[in-house]
Structure formats: structure tokens, C-alpha cells
Amino acid sequence: MHVYLLFYKGIRIKIAELVNLMTRKINICVFCGSREGNNQAFRSTAIETGNHIGKRGWRLVYGGGGVGLMGLVANSTMEAGGDALGIIPEFLSLREAGHTDLDDLIVTSGMHDRKQIMYSFADAFIALPGGVGTLDETIEILTWKQLERHKKPIILIDTNNFWRAFLAVLANSVETGFMDKSIYELLEIAPDVETAFKIIESHI
User: Fold this and answer.
1) 97, 101, 144, 147: which could join 67 in a potential S-S bond, CB 3.0 to 4.6 Å?
2) What is the chain written as a DSSP string?
């Protein structure tokens, strides 16, 4: 595993090498939970997502965890022949179970650096079920697209209707005048993993 310490204690290490590395493959950024949830379908979706990334020879870009759906996506990606790049802040790598067998790992000084790097390297975004961290990442990247900071596809895989409540929140903001209905044009809902990757391939 190659470990890059990025903006760590004021040191910038191997940035040119890392940028060169990341331009060689299609990079799919996946947001998902550090827990597996209480439905087997969540676990199956994570594994299938990794399989689809790996069998295409693409690279997974994600938060660097080795547990929950995060670990399942990373492991299945590598098992299927793809690469996995984890990006994790130092404090989380010490506090939580970071993945110890990735192809590449970037250790950042904080959460903002972590998300900036994930978003910058990604060619497309997939959101799987998860907790507040997953929701935070999904909303932020959607906001960036609304503000025209990127034009990359954002796909929510709606396993077991997980994203239904999130869509209801968006609808409420539209109905109460705080958001334009054009927000729905910035993301796509996929009922399953196969559909999600057809959407990505139509964009890339």
C-alpha cells in the first residue's frame, strides 16, 4: 500500500506522483456507511458496486474505512481487479478502523481536505445508504453542482427505498419556496447497481 501524507503537519509529499496516478483510470467516488445497516440488501448493494468498479478496471475513491459498507465496497473492488484509494483524516485513522490493505491511502489533516480531494479526483459519484457522514457528503457534492463547481454525474442507488426520505426533504424545500425544482436535474436515482453504472457509462 502506498501512503501519501497530504498537507500533514505542513508537509506536502509526492503530490505530482499522486496526480499522475489518479489520471490513469476512471475514478468513481462512493459515499456509504461505516456500518452495514440492518438489511442484507445494503450489504449486497455495496459488494455489487465494488464488483462493477473492479471488473471495469476503474478505481474506487472513498473515505478509507475498513468496516461497514465502506469496507465491503473497497474489498469487492480490489477482488474484482480494480484499485481502491482511501482518503482519511489522521484523527479518524487513529479513532476508527481504517482499511489497512488498500492500493493507495491519502492521510489528510482534516475533514475538509479529505472531501476536497475526493471530489476533485472523482469522475462520478455514487451514494449508497449510510449515516450522517454519507448524507453530508451527498448534500455537499450536490450543492457544489448546483453552484456549477462541477458537472459530474451524481447517482443515488435507492436500495430498499433508502433515499425516499431524502427526496422528500428536497421536495419540501421546493414546495416551500427555498429551492427550485431544477435541483432534480442535478442528480439521478437508480433502483439498482446495474442501472447506476449504465448511467455513469452514458456520461463518461
Assistant:
1) 97
2) -EEEEEEETTEE-SHHHHHHHHTSS-EEEEE--SS--S-HHHHHHHHHHHHHHHHTT-EEEE--BSSHHHHHHHHHHHHTT-EEEEEEEHHHHHHS-B-SS-SEEEEESSHHHHHHHHHHH-SEEEE-S--HHHHHHHHHHHHHHHTTS----EEEE-GGGTTHHHHHHHHHHHHTTSS-GGGGGG-EEESSHHHHHHHHHHH-
pLDDT at position 97: 63
Q: Domain 2-203, what fold? A: Rossmann fold (3.40.50)
pLDDT tens track for 78-132: 999 999 999 988 887 766 567 778 888 888 888 888 898 899 889 999 999 999 9
